[in-house]
Fold this sequence. Notes:
The structure holds two protein chains of two kinds. By secondary structure, chain A is an alpha+beta fold. Chain A has helices at residues 29-37, 39-45, 54-69, 117-132, 147-155, 184-190, and strands spanning 14-15, 19-23, 74-80, 86-96, 101-108, 137-143, 159-170, 173-183.
Amino acid sequence: xxxxxxxxxxxxxxxxxxxxxxxxxxxxxxxxxxxxxxxxxxxxxxxxxxxxxxxxxxxxxxxxxxxxxxxxxxxxxxxxxxxxxxxxxxxxxxxxxxxxxxxxxxxxxxxxxxxxxxxxxxxxxxxxxxxxxxxxxxxxxxxxxxxxxxxxxxxxxxxxxxxxxxxxxxxxxxxxxxxxxxxxxxxxxxxxxxxxxx
Amino acid sequence: xxxxxxxxxxxxxxxxxxxxxxxxxxxxxxxxxxxxxxxxxxxxxxxxxxxxxxxxxxxxxxxxxxxxxxxxxxxxxxxxxxxxxxxxxxxxxxxxxxxxxxxxxxxxxxxxxxxxxxxxxxxxxxxxxxxxxxxxxxxxxxxxxxxxxxxxxxxxxxxxxxxxxxxxxxxxxxxxxxxxxxxxxxxxxxxxxxxxxxxxxx
Lengths: 198, 202
């Protein structure tokens, strides 16, 4: 029994004060590629170091479009309202219709860090997940060394739920993965100002 | 597909760490053995898995039919052929019957980790059979398949299973709140993990 149907796509794009979350477009391929070239960004989301090229970026955009259309995943471009600039992406994936759970991921170009954009985008995506898709619990999994991301989630009210010790092997070293969780009731309680938007 | 690390294509596994699972494996224990599940085992699997107390904390369908056992065995054989997982029967050495199963459906060769799951026929509970099955299976995963990490998810209401894993040397790594919807009730998932270095020190 599915949680939602294609009518949810009519809620897109999602908008906040400074940002618009919309489906990825072919014109995003180049900024995607450029941002992910930065190791400081890509090391936190674990994308391949070596075989990374424009083809990879194109594949990523195309697959997001297909998976969005099929309601399998909601990978959205984050665009700045003031100038239409693509600054990063947020995604909702691993959706379980049976358990009403999902995972989120996010990444942003380094020059757009420290301005509250990621928090803003994540908050809007969560609002969509909880209010429109009727998700009950969201998971965000980050690398144990990614302090910035953990602080961001904690500020947004997420709870550190699990530490998967030495779960990820990269370049012959094992790293911890940390799973944060957020429940619908917690989000609604702390974000009642977003009630009007959906 | 990426880019998120958890979404990367699992098919791109480095061949160097992948071991070929021995489909005819038999592991001898003191009170139970672990062995390949065969088509004739469907009947005894059906006999033990159909009980409500087994379905309660697992994803074994309920009510359970003999055909479900047949399909399960086919799926296990296919998984072993693809080298993506291994499920073994827990064998009662006196009757040679399969009285439960233990295994991993998704061995991650790239990161050398595996999630395990197991169940045992209710009439055999309380004798340490599940503990032995887990220890035998862990030895296989760590020493033969050379994995680095093994973990299990246990529904919070399933206290006995969690306590057993803790006794065996697993660490409780946390709990994901209300993520499991089972027969209209919500449960937390407790995570239990053990690393190869820790297993060797037991």
